[in-house]
Predict the 3D structure of the following.
Amino acid sequence: MEDTIRKNAEEAFNRWWKENPEAGIDPDINLTGYFNFEDKSKEGYVNHAKENHHAKVSDNPSQFEGPKGKALQFDGENSISIDQVADFNRTQPFSMSAWIHIPRERERIIVMHHSKAGSDAGSRGYELLLENGHAAFALIHFWPGNAIKVRTVDKLPLQEWLHLGWTYDGSSKAEGIHFFINGRSVDTEITRNSLYKDIAYGGKVPLQLGARFRGRGYKDGKLDELRIFDQSLSEPQMLSVFNEATLPKTGEQPNLTDGWFDYWLTRYHEPYQDLQKNLLQARSDENKLINGVTEIMAMGDIKGGRKTYILNRGQYDLPGKEVKPGTPERIFPFDTTWPQNRLGLAKWLTSPDNPLTSRGSRQSLLANVFWKGHRRNR
C-alpha cells in the first residue's frame, strides 16, 4: 500500500514543487528537546524546545568553547541526565543530533544511552557508541539475541568538531537506522538485525550523556547542541538542522529519492500521513501483544557452524584432526533430511527406528520395577 501511495503522490509533489518556490524546511519541526548547554537554571540546563525536562548535571562536566558557544567535556565518570523527552519504544520513530569532538579511538566508548544498565543486564534500551572509530547505534531488548545495531562504514575524524545525526523509523529493522555527518547521509553496515520485543523498561529511565555504570565513558570527549525529534528525519531535514536555518528549495527539480519527497509526504500529503498513523497503531498493538508472551532462554546455532577438533591429550591448545557432527552408523543411520545440529540429534535419538530408544526405555522400566523389589527382599 505504501508503494502505491508514493507512486500516486508523485504528480502532486511535482506540482507542489513548482507552485511553492518559497517553501523550505524548518529545522525545528517535531523538536522535543534542544539543549545548548549554556543556559542553566537551578534544575539544570534548559530545554529550549519544551518547558521543564531540564538536563540534570552529575559531577559537573567541564565547559569549553564549542562550535556554537559553550560545549561540555566529560571525564568518563560525570554525566548529564535528561528525563522524558527521549523516552521512545521500538515502534516510535525518532531522531537525534549533536556536535561531537572525539579525542581518541577506543574499542568501545559510551557517548549516550537510554538504559538502566550495561551488557551485564542485557542493555535494554538504546545507545550511541563509538567502536574503534566508527559511530554505532543500537536498539536493544536483550543483547545480543533481541536487538538491532548499525554502524558507519568509515571511521569518524578525530580531534575536530563534526555534526552527527542519527534517525530511526520505528520499523524494528536495522534498515530503518541511518547516520548523517554534517547533514549528509553516510554509508552504514548492519551488525545485528533481530528486534522483536520492546526496548522500554516502563519506569523512569533518563537519557544519559557521557557515562554508564560499568561502561567506558566518553572520556575527554566534547558534546554540544543536542537535539531530539519525535520523527525520523529525511536528509534535507537533517541538513537544515546542521545549518540551523530553514533549508531553501533550489530551482532545480529534485530527484524523488533525495529526501525532499519523503519530507513532503510526511508534512503535506494526507493519505501518507493517515497510512503512517495506522502503521504506528498496528505496530503498537503488535508490540503490546508480543511483550506479553513469556520467553525462555534457548541457545542458538552459530551461523556456518563451529569447527571442532580432536584435542591431543585433551588439551584445548593442542587441536588435532577436525571432526564433523555425526552419529554411530552401525546403531542407526542418520536421516539425510535431518539438520546436522541439536534438533537433528534429538530426531535421531527419539526415532521409532532407533534401537537405543526402546532398549533404554525398557531397561529403565525393568530397573524401576525389579531393582526396587530386589532391594526390598534383601
The mean pLDDT is 88.
